[in-house]
Amino acid sequence: MRGSGFGTKGVDRTEPRTLSMKDWIEECFDRFGRSKEYPEDVVKFRCPVCGTVQTKEDFVPFFDKEIELLGVFGLSCIGRWSEEKGCDYAGGGLFKLNPVSVVLENGRIVDVFEFAEAEKEV
Ligand SMILES: [Zn+2]
């Protein structure tokens, strides 16, 4: 695949892009399947800094409330909570490296991680 840009560690060098919430959800289900009701239950994200693939399941042990989990999932790396994998990158911090801008229905924009390739399941 010419120009796909995978480095030796398998980290995507993804071009920044912007899409609507509706399209983002659609792409999410297209990539990861429609087996579950919510996109956050199927999505796999890749941290733009360390390349770690992370799912909602990875975050569940660290959060009592789902609403808090969803406030960081796909925005900040699992490594901020887990000592076993990831890095300490926080998407809401000073360095904004999240490549995908999702435009919400109210016009607000949330920058999130790029999807991990579905076939690269670990
Ligand atoms: Zn990371």
Overview of the molecule:
This protein has 122 residues and is α+β, with helices and mostly antiparallel strands. The chain has one domain (17-115). It has four helices and six strands, in the order E-H-H-E-E-H-H-E-E-E. The strands form two sheets. The chain has a three-stranded mixed beta sheet. A hairpin with a 5-residue loop joins strand 4 and strand 5. The chain starts with 16 loop residues before the first strand and ends in a 7-residue tail after the last strand. Bound molecules: zinc ion. Residues 47, 49-50, 52, 77, 79, 86-87, 89 line the site of zinc ion.
Q: What is the gist of this entry?
A:
By secondary structure, the protein is α+β, with helices and mostly antiparallel strands.
Task: Name the features.
single chain, 122 residues, alpha+beta, three-stranded mixed sheet, three-stranded antiparallel sheet, 4 helices, globular, binds zinc ion
- From the N-terminal CA to the C-terminal CA, the straight-line distance is 21 Å
Low-confidence stretches: 1-8
Beta-strand segment tally: 6
Cα gyration radius (Å): 14 Å
The neighbouring-strand order within the major sheet is 1-4-5
State the share of residues found in helices, binned by percent. Answer: 10-25%
The description of the largest β-sheet is: 3 strands, mixed
Give the bound compounds. zinc ion
Helices and strands, in order, run as: EHHEEHHEEE
Separate helix tally = 4
- The pLDDT mean sits at 87
- The class by helix and strand makeup works out as alpha+beta
How many separate domains make up the residues?
A: 1
What is the general shape? globular
Portion in beta strands: 5-15%
